[in-house]
Structure formats: C-alpha cells, structure tokens
Design goal:
Pfam family, one: MIX23
InterPro entries: MIX23, MIX23_fungal
Distance between the termini: 28 Å
Family: Belongs to the MIX23 family.
Protein name: Caffeine-induced death protein
Length: 200
Amino acid sequence: MTQPSIQPRLTPQFCFSTSALKDFLRISRSSIDDSITQNLNALVTPAKRGFDPSSTSQLGPRSLHRPIDPQSCQGFKDKVLFPSWQARSDVLSYCALVATSPDPDDPDAAVREAELERDRERVVDERLDPYSARFFPRQPRTERLASVLRQEKGVENIVRSRTWEIVQERCAEPVQEWEQALAAWRKGKSTQDWVPVREV
C-alpha cells in the first residue's frame, strides 16, 4: 500500500521558502492524488485460486475495473488518503497563519523602506514623462506567501474533488462531498493521533 504523505516540520522559514512549500504539495499530490487509479488498482485482490483459463474462453465486453474489497478501500482512505489530505491541510493552515502574522524578520524591509523614501523624493511630471508616476514597491514576503497559498488552496480543492470522484466510483462510496468524508474521518480519529489546525 502507498505510504501517506509525511508532514514537514512546520516553521515560518518553511512557509517563506515557497519552493519548499510547493515541492511538498506537488510531491504529496503526485504520489497520492495524481496516481489514485494506480493506488486503487493495487488494492484489487488477485484471483485466490490462481489463473482461471475459462476466463479467456469467451470474448465479450468486460468491466474496465475489477471490484475492490470494501475493507481495502476503507483501509486506503483511513491510512493513506485522508492522512495525506490532513497533512496538506495542516501545512496550508499553518502557512496561512504565518502569512497573516507580523513579520519583523523580513529581510526586504530595509530595501522596501529605502524604495519608498526614494519614491517620496521623486519629481513627477506627467507632461514630460507620462509613466513617471508609476511606482511598484516590493511586496512584503507575507503578501507573496498569501498569494501562493490562495493559488495552492484552489489547486487543492480541484485535486481533492477529482480524486474523490474516482474513489466514490471505484469503492462504491455513498454519495457525499469529499469535505463531508474528511470531516467524518477527522471526527472518528482520536485526538491523540493528530492535532487539528484551523482548516484552510
């Protein structure tokens, strides 16, 4: 069985290193969600008595997917899918808190202040140069992080919806949204196994 995504150590530095943040999300999605069909196919129990030659005696339409044992499906969801989703939710939630918190250690703060000071001293004459009034100050890293998180949250919702459609089809799940299924899993999970972080 595929292993669930392992949550990285959550620090502000991890969040501000947006390449590390994006890499974690990309690797988690590719190993769990992007390969959901292969992960589910791996749960199909092979024939218990070995190969049955009579299975090839007739040519006809066959189901594209063999049925998956409900216990195997439940085990995959409880041990791999939902823990991976939770790890990604925790990372996104933590980094969202970092993005909305004061950032006294911003290395670009002095540069930004100098840029603002230079902008105040500039002489703007739009008759001579219509573009002279344009000024684009450097964004604080918290704003850049917030922008990345908005984008990643949108991607996460799309990925989970697509994954859940396949899981419902292959595991004969009752019709419900992925949010409801994840909430039910969280509710059934003991508080010793995971510490909830505010949902993104």
